[in-house]
Write a structure and sequence with these properties.
The structure holds two protein chains of two kinds.
Chain A: E1 3-7, E2 11-12, E3 18-25, E4 35-42, E5 46-55, E6 59-63, E7 71-76, E8 81-86, E9 95-103, E10 106-110, E11 114-118
Parallel strand pairs in A: 2-11
Antiparallel strand pairs in A: 1-3, 3-8, 4-5, 4-9, 5-6, 7-8, 9-10, 9-11
Chain B: E1 4-7, E2 10-13, E3 19-25, E4 33-38, E5 45-49, E6 53-54, E7 62-67, E8 70-75, E9 85-90, E10 98-99, E11 103-107
Parallel strand pairs in B: 2-11
Antiparallel strand pairs in B: 1-3, 3-8, 4-5, 4-9, 5-6, 7-8, 9-10, 9-11
Classes of the chains: A mainly beta, B mainly beta.
């Protein structure tokens, strides 16, 4: 059974960097058949896919246009986890952030969610 | 970007009734369409992928249909546990995924 456990701070100051980690059990971040995603949800923007990392003989990353340039998703093979970094945050980045496994052009296992508030 | 619209915004039904939820895409997504259920304070749960394939552990009362731009999620007989918000999601516009705004199914 795949389980995803998220960790990271719930409060970030404006202009700083949001950092979250998603620890994987029951699968491998290096699997060559799935992808590892970050999604966020807010009342104003609904559910918004942010990006993914995946391994297919080499590592790939893909990001949504709206945050490209501010976002980095990195795998950590030694700890079997992956991370999200979002730079230069503003209050508009306040949301519940989820990690999820990607398969079948969808998202089949999700983390528990982390409410991140951007405020001074 | 492919935009998904869902109808109705709210569906008020009683346990045992049939629920029919609609999702429409701004351009064809083939069968790369998924459905999720979300309850307050919880992560979305995958119900249907590839338009009509049930995810692991999903009861047979949930079914999906459609292709191209028009899709339907049907709950054949509502159980008390089914009252929630339902989202559709497209996976055609690779690499981006987008979600619909949701349909809330509440108790009449």
């Amino acid at each position: 059974q795949v389980q995803l456990q998220q960790s990271g701070p719930g409060l970030v100051k404006p202009s700083q960097t949001l950092s979250l980690t998603c620890a994987i059990s029951g699968d491998s971040v290096s699997s060559n058949s799935v992808a590892w995603n970050w999604i966020r949800q807010s009342p104003s923007r609904g559910l918004e896919w942010l990006g993914r990392t995946y391994y297919r003989s080499k590592w790939y990353n893909e990001y949504v246009v709206s945050v490209r340039g501010r976002i980095t998703i990195n795998p950590d093979t030694s700890r079997n986890q992956f991370s999200l970094q979002l730079n230069s945050v503003t209050p508009e980045d306040t949301a519940v952030y989820y990690c999820a496994r990607g398969q079948w052009r969808s998202l089949d296992y999700w983390g528990q969610g982390t409410l991140v508030t951007v405020s001074s | 970007e492919i935009v998904l619209t869902q109808a109705p915004a709210t569906l008020s039904l009683s346990p045992g009734e049939r629920a029919t939820l609609s999702c429409r895409a701004s351009q064809s997504v083939g069968t790369y369409l998924a459905w999720f259920q979300q309850k307050p304070g919880r992560a979305p749960r995958l119900l249907i992928y590839y338009a009509s394939s049930r995810a692991t552990g999903i009861p047979a009362r949930f079914s999906g249909s459609g292709s191209g731009t028009d899709f339907t999620l049907t709950i054949s007989s509502l159980e008390p546990d089914d009252f929630a918000v339902y989202y559709c999601q497209q996976g055609s516009d690779w690499p981006s995924f987008t979600f619909g705004p949701g349909t809330k199914v509440d108790i009449k």
